[in-house]
Amino acid sequence: MPVDLGSALVIGQYLPRGSILHRLDPRTKILITTGLAVVLFFVPSFLGLGAFALWMLGLLVVGQIPLGYALRGLRPLVILLMLTAFLNTFFAAGDPTPALFHLGPLVATWGGLRTGLYVGARLVLLVLVTSMLTFTTSPVELTDGLERLLRPFARIGLPAHELAMMMTIALRFIPTLLEETEKIMKAQMARGADFERGTAFRRARAFVPVLVPLMVGAFRRSEELALAMEARCYRGGEGRTRMKELRWSMADAVAGVLATAVAVAILRVG
After folding, report:
1. For 129-162, what is each residue's pLDDT tens digit?
2. Global confidence as pTM
3. How open is the CA angle 62-67-72, to the nearest 5 degrees?
């Protein structure tokens, strides 16, 4: 099914392309994404975050992912980013003099503003690096990769296949639920609902008529999915075969070495 690049729903979407990133083993991409996310929390400065941003820009170019489409996935996080910057500006530890401005008893400091911008930039990069995994990996490949990585833990009783399946289904349903939320809100607005005016408590109450049908729809979709899986004789991972077996290649080794080198370089720069 073709992907609508103009859609506002980006999180969890897969963009089919013929790039080298799409052809990598899903296990390689999962491990690299996890490693880069961990490295991101150890980058101590804006210089390191800038180097990380350049690396992400290069990945977008290699993966043939439009930059505007990737940045569109940050729209749901705008309020969280603004709240993070606001709280850090007023409450983060920093040099109290000179104060930037006063908001009642609250004092905005330069150190707090710097911390807020730093935390916000790190959150943006974290969303981008995790989005690259879903942009370049289909849900089926993601499930197989997670299952293969979790398989060694099956010896201690961890249900690797079921856990990978649940994680993938949850990730896949994110854009579906966002789309259904948008439809319900538009239907409620057509009936006179107002989600933008009034106090914060009033606006929160206005979302109750949205949450109820959303939860009902989510349960209905989960039941339909369960019935569809049972109709196809799904019985878990036991005895399951695959049309395409996962195999490491030289490209995966090169990607792992390159990602490790870039991570070390970013940490040294930062």
Report:
1. 988 888 898 877 887 888 888 888 777 877 777 7
2. 0.71
3. 140
CA distance 264 to 50: 14
pLDDT tens column, 219-256: 888 888 888 888 887 776 666 666 677 788 898 999 99
Question: Are the C-beta atoms of residues 8 and 73 closer than 8 Å to each other?
Answer: no
Q: Biggest alpha carbon distance in the chain?
A: 68
Q: How far apart are the first and last CA of the chain?
A: 42
Distance between CA atoms of residues 166 and 32, nearest Å: 21
**Paired strand residues for 106:** 103
Report the SS3 class of residue 238.
coil
Q: Radius of gyration (Cα) for the chain, nearest Å?
A: 22
- CA 83/CA 67 separation, integer angstroms: 25
State the DSSP H helix or E strand holding residue 177, giving kind and residue range, or none if neither. helix 160-190
